[in-house]
Design a protein that fits this description.
Strand content: under 5%
Number of strands: 0
Helix content: over 70%
Largest sheet: none
Radius of gyration: 16 Å
Structural class: mainly alpha
Shape: elongated
Order of helices and strands: HHH
Number of helices: 3
């Protein structure tokens, strides 16, 4: 993989994590202001982003077949 592609991927990852951080902050503010349904929706989106990043980072060295056998049905 070229350095340009690696750099771009890292920039995209960083931007996604910043988005998740902002969504988490917004969710907390919505909860404090009493907007519980909206807060839950936004916080769930933040968690999805964090979980996707974790799966991507932990699965980097494995093949797709390896990952399929490890995921719950």
């Amino acid at each position: 993989m070229s350095d340009d592609v690696s750099t771009l991927r890292e920039q995209v990852r960083t931007a996604r994590l910043r988005l998740a951080d902002c969504a988490a902050d917004l969710g907390v503010l919505l909860r404090v202001s009493g907007e519980y349904a909206e807060a839950e929706r936004v916080l769930r989106q933040a968690v999805e982003i964090y979980e996707a990043d974790r799966r991507t980072r932990t699965g980097a060295g494995r093949t797709a077949a390896d990952r399929r056998t490890e995921e719950p049905a």
